[in-house]
What we know:
The structure holds two protein chains of two kinds. By secondary structure, chain A is mostly beta strands. Chain A has no helices and eleven strands. Chain A has strands spanning 4-5, 10-14, 19-25, 32-38, 45-51, 56-59, 62-67, 72-77, 86-93, 101-102, 106-111. In chain A, the strands form two sheets. In chain A, strands 2, 4, 5, 9, 10 and 11 form a six-stranded mixed β-sheet that branches. In chain A, strands 1-3-8-7-6 form a five-stranded antiparallel β-sheet, with no helix packed on it. Chain A is globular and about 40 Å long. The radius of gyration of chain B is 13 Å and the shape is globular. Chain B is an all-beta fold. Chain B contains no helices and eleven strands. In chain B, a hairpin with a 3-residue loop joins strand 4 and strand 5 (42-51). Helix content of chain B is 0%, strand content 51%. At the A-B interface, strand 4, strand 5, strand 9 and strand 10 of A face strand 4, strand 5, strand 9 and strand 10 of B.
Amino acid sequence: DQQVKQNSPSLSVQEGRISILNCDYTNSMFDYFLWYKKYPAEGPTFLISISSIKDKNEDGRFTVFLNKSAKHLSLHIVPSQPGDSAVYFCAASDNQGGKLIFGQGTELSVKP
Amino acid sequence: NAGVTQTPKFQVLKTGQSMTLQCAQDMNHEYMSWYRQDPGMGLRLIHYSVGAGITDQGEVPNGYNVSRSTTEDFPLRLLSAAPSQTSVYFCASSNGGGVEETQYFGPGTRLLVL
Lengths: 112, 114
């Protein structure tokens, strides 16, 4: 049973436009959520996170929104740049160190 | 500060062979984890450790063993490799749970089992 789901395997946007990546989860015990970015042949790199006590966290061009009642989070990238092209994973933690549950990933392609 | 390092980068094994994937971190993190990445499956947790001498199973532990004798190192052992273990393996470390649960990943080990 997939506790964290990213239902869009891929997303293509034009440079300068907004990219919206979505993630749904089923476990109400999750209290911390993270987004990772991954380039081919590299390890995932941390992008942005949000605690369950917040509904929004912003860092430069990246904003994560959390809707606890819907068990849904989203990552907004504005404006999108070609260098943002990568696979994006959302992940969730239930406050037990060392354990992250990941979604399947969404491959973002930003076209010039 | 090298962060999380993994060796080897790439390995080919025959079915039934054993090997150890090495992982080390120099950030003095208490928590370390092993994940495997397969197409369409995201990253799945194999084993994790909350400190030296303490390990526990993740989502997909079968066929893998771990130990944690030091804070820095967390090797992953395949006792008898199977083609189903062909994957990319990532090691990660973090400071702790909750809001400290930002894990930092190594570059990965690509394993092919024939």
